[in-house]
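Field reference: "sequence" (input) and "structure" (output). Example, nitric oxide dioxygenase:
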Amino acid sequence: MALTFEQSKIVRGSIPMLKEQGERITGLFYSTMITAHPELRNMFNLVNQANRRQPRALCSVILAFASNLSHTHELIPKLERVCHKHCSLGIRPEHYDIVGKYLLQAFAEVLGSGWTPQLHGAWSKAYSILARMLIGREVSLYKDFGEWQGWRSFRIHQKIAETEDIYSFYLVPSDGGSLPSFVPGQYISLRIMIPGKGHLQPRQYSLSETPRPDYYRISVKRDRGVQVGKGVDAFQLRPGMVSNELIDDYAAGDTVEVTHPAGDFNFDTQCYSTMPVVLISAGSGVSPLTSILNTIVDNQPNRPISWIHCSARRAPFEDHVRSIARGRPNFAMRFFRSKVAEVDYRSGTARGEGLRMDLERIDREQLHLDHGAAEYYISGPEAFSFDMSKFLRGQGVDPQRIRNEWFTTGEVA
């Protein structure tokens, strides 16, 4: 049942309140819900609870919904990303009743006397509409997954150091069964038991190889934590709990749990094309683009490719990329490095060292900026992806030709 005109007016009228109190509401919601349902600790990223990325993400979704009540079709791209994440984590329709209960309780506690019966009624119905939208799409995604529903045991077949802080894990099904294909650019959720915590923790990792029938590959970067913001607003993001545990304590022969590949950042393998593709990445954002790169190389030999990557030092898969360049005349590459390592000087690959990613340093021809059908795939930290997209749009690139994958909770609730 749709909102009445008066209820829509009430929800839209609460937008200023949400902008002011939204993160407080969603932060209280998560803490209260997880306390009442400790089994959900196995589902939610507790690091992103602590650094408030998760509450911020949920607040973003709620605000977007309240702002688009009369044209909810504009929410589809945002909600598609959310639905893929939910299915990757195994969220089911029954979880929405739990979420609705504690979300409305958090509204009431934060707003106090301002939480009127009219506001409660309007937001209760609004949440039901949003939940139905998400559930409907998620049911469809689960149907696409086929027989593989939920978590499945995988064995680490190989663990390979790509750089000093990025390791590739080759994962094979413990049951010896077959693996479904995936669309290059997608991710899996992986979860492990965290020592001393008494619960499982899931994380999403992009698949870094083309679809194979016998294994999945992910490439995991050590997370040392980072300070965000300046002055009194600065805070320290906690180091990656799961990534560091995988790198430090997991080896070939160990087992992990994995869900079906998902994600809306992907490369269309059904469309054979000769149009240029520009792949732009930073840090561990290289993972999904490596999958896309290998897919193009294997299946579309006449397609021009530009590969542009920025990392602190030597890039993961750099030797692989350089070998492609040697055998493919329509391939251009550029590596930026923000720090210089002695090994790079010795190997003669120190060109471009000490430079952060700057697309203005790259020839327009290599970026295919004057080609009206070139496709751009950008993957990396959120601020990086935003800056790269902004530059391309400023050069006249149609936003419809730019695809982004950012490595943060971002808009995903």
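The first strand starts at residue 152 and ends at 161.
The domain at 152-258 is CATH 2.40.30.10 (Elongation Factor Tu (Ef-tu); domain 3).
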